[in-house]
Amino acid sequence: MPSRRSQEMLGIIRSHKKLASNVSNGMLMKVDMPVERAAKFRVDGTSALPMNGLDMPAMRIKPAKVSVEDAVLLHLHGGAYVSGGLLQCRALISPICAEAGIRAVTFSYRLAPQHPYPAQLNDAYKVYQFLRSAGFEAKKIGLVGESAGGNLALALALRLREEGQELPGALALLSPWVDLAQTGESYQRLKDVDATLNAEELLQSAIAFAGGAESLSKPEISPIYADFHGFPPTLIHCGTSEILLSDSEQLENKMLRDGVDAHLVRWDGMCHVFQAFGFEESKAANHQLGVFLYENLRDH
After folding, report:
1. I need a surface site. Which of 162, 239, 243, 281 has the fewest CB within 10 A?
2. What angle in degrees, to the nearest 10, is found between the helix axes of 86-100 and 280-297?
3. What is the pLDDT of residues 152-195, one digit of tens each?
């Protein structure tokens, strides 16, 4: 049962959904923050520093207590591939990093429509290889992605498998956006319930990212059409009040079909990427994600 506070807050957000959407599309999408300033943004339980050695903005995040010294979380941010920056990255991955007791790296990839697919995947691949060259074993790297970042985490793992490389040790996906053609029934059933997402706007972002509507059903664009044999343990979180619920349900089914140790947790009444909202459920979800990553990346 959702907490009273979360439902009150989501009701307020839902009632101002159009205004919030207009603000984010009109202004916030164009705002970014220098890595030095984003790193100074305070999140309890962690510290952050700019990360050098890459040709894109990136930062390292360290939990107050490091429980697994030789592991790292690679965070891939959301924003429908058309928005998102380092402040969002800092706020989203830090609580998970602290709960896991594992250092994290997060970065700001190129955005559509100026940079359509595969620019984002190429950027993620470059950061992943940077971590590998720094000495991290693949099995000690956990991929964490919310929304479009969940899509990107899967796309990265698919490319690594295609090249015959060892896959990361775990995937943690928060409301992953994996059905860009919107074939799932929740896009219609939950459109008036979803507090933050608009299906029409999301489709336009998908087309901008894919370079055209004809590409939306390709596995590299919509991972629900991919084969997942050989993938690592995967934890999927999704709210039951968001239009992307079908994405997560289809993804879990496809991964289980292919023998993956995949598990979907449905959070009652929660919205898209509720982990960032500071609800009681947010804290519980971040703790669960942290425990999952710790269990899969620590030495056994």
Report:
1. 162
2. 70
3. 999 999 999 999 999 999 999 999 999 999 999 999 999 999 99
Distance between CA atoms of residues 231 and 287, nearest Å: 23
Short-list 88, 91, 90, 68, CA closest to 79: 88
Residue 147 is a catalytic residue: yes
Using the CB atoms, write b or e for 75-92: b if 16+ within 10 Å.
bbbbbbbbbbbbbbbbeb
3-state DSSP assignment of residue 288: helix
Q: Among residues 6, 83, 108, 147, which one is catalytic?
A: 147
Inter-residue contact 58 to 106 (CB < 8 Å): yes
The residues, any chain, with a CB within 8 Å of residue 226's CB and separated by 6 or more, are 154, 158, 219, 220, 254
0.90 exceeded by pTM: yes
Residue 107 and residue 58 in contact, taking contact as beta carbons nearer than 8 Å? yes
pLDDT in tens, 232-274: 999 999 999 999 999 999 999 999 999 999 999 999 999 999 9
Beta strands in 56-161 (DSSP E): 58-63, 72-76, 104-107, 141-146
Contact 76, 152 (CB under 8 A): yes
Residue in 146, 242, 252, 281 annotated catalytic: 242
**Domain 4-297: CATH superfamily, name plus number:** Alpha/Beta hydrolase fold, catalytic domain (3.40.50.1820)
Helix 119-133, helix 148-162: angle, nearest 10: 60
